[in-house]
Amino acid sequence: MEKGRVIIGEKRFKLTLERLTHQLIERHDLFENTCIIGLQPRGVFLAKRIYQRLQELQGPLQLDFGLLDITFYRDDFRTRAKPLKASETKMDFIVEDKKVILVDDVLYTGRTVQSALTALNHYGRPKQVELVAMVDRRFNRHLPIQSDYVGLTVDAVDKAYVKVEWEGKDGEDQILLFEDKGLLD
What pTM was estimated for this model as a whole? Predict the structure, then answer.
């Protein structure tokens, strides 16, 4: 596999996580009637890190935390060349009349977020939904969806690929840019 170009290294990555966490604190204060939901599979890493940091900064919060799989809500899951592998949804709460903070690693076309909004309806009708994305590829949107909290905006051509790597999974916290998605495994 081609080695991507590092566009954010470990030090700036941690600063970006810290900034996103503080922006959430500024807007939500004590997070009353709020939940954080990480989108499976890769949004979970960002969601867990933010949730953990919120607990460290604010003390124990009454903040529901869940993981949402959107595999079978995707508009393309039947048209893929190979079958999609679903992840587990772990939500032991409903979102009825709650403020929901959806978390994903990369906002690209907007289709994942659209699928998440559809899947979320099975857990009630939220009062409000916000989106946190570590990376926003703003020029590649297919749907009118935007993030409320953005770690980094990347303007790249359509065939490029942006990957967020996580210390716990990939060995290092960093964001990589691959010039040609076709060169990836």
Answer: 0.91
